[in-house]
Amino acid sequence: MPTHLADTTKLHNGVEMPWLGLGVWRVEDGQEVESSVRTAIEHGYRSIDTAAVYGNEEGVGRAIRDSGVPREQLFVTTKVWNADQGYDSALAAYEQSLQRLGLDYADLYLIHWPVKGKYKQTWRALERLYSDKRVRAVGVSNFHIHHLEDLKTSSELVPMVNQVECHPRLSQAPLRGYCREQGIQFEAWSPLMQGKELLEHELFVQLAAKYGKTPAQIILRWDLQQGIVTIPKSITPSRIRENADVFDFELSAEDMAQIDTLNTDTRVGADPDNFNF
Predict the structure, then answer these.
(1) pLDDT tier for residue 219 given thresholds of 50, 70 and 90
(2) CATH class, 8-260 region
(3) Binding residues for substrate
(4) Among the options 45, 54, 119, 130, which is catalytic?
(5) β-strands 75-80, 106-111: how paired?
(6) For residue 4, is pLDDT > 90?
């Protein structure tokens, strides 16, 4: 059970990944993203999650370089976008991401979405980057069980991470169980459901009062106690600090079970079986 912001989970290849990081989806490149990343690193975050399609890799890289924290102490994730999927194009996309980030390597490179007919070749490219020691770990994002099973038929490596939408309204229990069995670290994007209704839900308001925390902190703690890596996004310094202040309390088994009853399989993002971008 993580008890500190610096705590890590060990991926199946031995690489240590922080349990909590900063997500920067829809954070504008330039001052906005630089300020968010700088605030997070100053407050002790060591994991930053970006993607080519977010259009802010350059700002993320600048903030990392300006942070004064040695590169090897940080964990940087980026992702290959759908238009760049395929073997050669994914290899090229990775080099372009590194160039924008101004870094020699990423700690984790993910396939952003399971593009039909493309993701297997893309995975071969990621395996190549990994075997060439260009990246420390490789994984996928938005993959259902059947996508992971399909990948298995022609791959050498099991993905180290699967990053998907997950929050109390979409708890993803079957997928989490599958990933656990396969040694794939499960990671949540939109852990707070982008602030929609969850933060005002009666249960979280009650639990927040009980533990002396905020509803957001209760939800993020639920993630951590389920063994889920989580990357809440914020551009507000106080919220960035608040999101990380979740290591000094523990939800009871009873309260965890109560939160589990909220699942309705409701998504705020696209279904990985039905997306057109």
Answers:
(1) very high
(2) alpha beta
(3) 112
(4) 54
(5) parallel
(6) yes
